[in-house]
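subagent[fold] <- orchestrator: predict structure for attached chain, return tokens only, no commentary.
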Amino acid sequence: MAAKIIKEIDSFELKYHFKIGIIFTFFFVLVIFIFKNINNNDVIPYEATFNYVEGINNHSEVQIAGVKIGEVSEIMISSKGITINGFIDKVYDIPEDSIVKIKSEGIFGKKALSLEPGFGEYLDKSKQQYVFNQTQDSYSIDMFLRYLNELNE
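subagent[fold] -> orchestrator:
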């Protein structure tokens, strides 16, 4: 039976196999693209401005109490400082007076944005974008060592 199937497959021209391969690849990429973008309606963009963002990159996590609720999508230098844009899942209610901090997982661990919820009213999910005005910069060992060195002098 297997020999019969192989003989039938070999009877087709190489162009036919090539066309089938290209069609399969196209549909495979299309399905992956649709699958990755299907959840984009369930997120709300945000903006936060910092002075020092060492260790934060695109795709860094946004967390509340260690639980991932979003991601960083863009880091830009602006006149106000360094602006970080990204998205937060709509399922989470974020109070208006929340503080966004840059935290590190361990001494040399990766960094993430950490939301510390406040006690105010929840941000309006119908808005086009969350804007966080209360932020706290990242601390680095390099800055700490420079500070200790200045104290020594």
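orchestrator: received. Logging for downstream: Strands lie at 43-50, 61-64, 67-78, 81-89, 99-104, 111-116, 130-132, 135-136. The longest strand covers residues 67-78.
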